Amino acid sequence: MHSTSSTFGGRLFAPGLDGVGVPATGQWRQGRLVVCVQDGGVEREWLAPEQPTLSAGGFNAAQLSVAWPAEGGQVQFFVDAGAARAAFAAAMPATLAQPHGAAQRAARGVERRFKLWWAVLAAVALLPVLALALLVLRGGDVVDWAVRQIPHAQEAKLGDLVLAQTRARMRVIDSGPAVDAVKYMGERLTPGTLHRYRWLVVDQPEMNAFAAPGGVVVVYSGLLKGTDTPEEAAGVIAHEVAHAELRHGLQGMVKSMGLRAGAAVLLGDWSGAVLSEATTSLLEMKFSREAETEADAEGLRRMVAAKINPEGMARFMDKLAAQSKDATPPALLSTHPASSERAATLRALAAQHPGPWDTLPLDWAAVKASLP
User: Which helix (H) or strand (E) holds 148?
Assistant: First the structure.
């Protein structure tokens, strides 16, 4: 193997960079991957270890994900498909042949799905007038239909991307009482789920939490500190779980970007521009009043089923409703609008379920004290 090789393009996610990634070039030097970006006119380099994690990347599995841990998060380089992928493989060390081969097999499987679904879409494209009429007259039904066609496994890949961006943009707390508590409550709230949930606690002072498609739930340390009881925190987690289970994030993305977003997730055919637009829309998504009402009701139902006192959800909503009048309301209100009416509705629903309730086996003072 030569000491250096030709360069190949891709997209880099790393701490300190834009959350949706930046264009980058890679090159093999003495058997080590070096990734370069232009940052404000200055070239910056990231040196991968000798054995980075190599796997199929991107929604069509044609990209290659090369990842390794770094200070403040994780570095993940997505090698472009085609010539860039070929240049990567031509000079890579022999030790990476096995994971690279697995990625190639995954790409061939997705390619077979492409042929089938592009044939379906080509047939649909012959009926543009009907499609336009459906979008105008029954847009919601079309979106719901498109979302139902997307397998949970494909939706999980979208969540993986949001997860990678979260790790690149924020400091994730990987262990400790807070992480254990969030996972414990989350698993109680999701029996029999079709998602593979990833429960994250991030070191962020804002009172915030969000759910991404495919079962990624991110809870800010500031939110945990702002609760008085574990039941209040469970109420927030239940609400976010409801968004994930009802696939609100996926529905919102398809509505905001059009059916091309649904087709992209379904087929795994995502260009860099669509990828960036989709993940940005997910991180900044504001749900409709209807979606929020559905998530409230479904979250409360899950708390009752888990024998967690749903009054905790109502108490937390009371807090948000009160703080919404402040000059600097909680960050959660930017995507989850609160109101005294919502709090009252939740309290009325909670009152219909007298219990008995389990006492959550969590030392909440210790949980909060463990946070930075």
Answer: helix 139-148
d(CA 239, CA 232): 11
> What is the pLDDT at residue 358?
96
Model pLDDT, residue 68: 93
Residue 136, classed as helix, strand or coil, is helix
List the beta bridge partners of residue 23. Answer: 11
Inform me whether the pLDDT recorded for 179 exceeds 80. yes
DSSP label of 26: E
Name the CA dihedral angle for 255, 256, 258, 259, rounded to a multiple of 10 degrees.
Answer: -50
Q: Where are the domains of the chain?
A: 8-103, 153-369
- Closest among 69, 68, 70, 77 to 37, alpha carbons compared: 77
State how beta strands 198-202 and 216-220 pair.
Answer: parallel
- pLDDT at 60 (0 to 100): 62
The DSSP call for residue 139 is H
Mean per-residue pLDDT of the chain:
82
Longest dimension (CA), the chain: 72
Contact 122, 246 (CB under 8 A): no
Write down the residue that tokens 């779980």 correspond to. 241
Which distant-in-sequence residues (6+ apart) come within 8 Å of 213 by Cβ?
A: 155, 156, 158, 159, 162, 244, 247, 249, 250, 253, 282
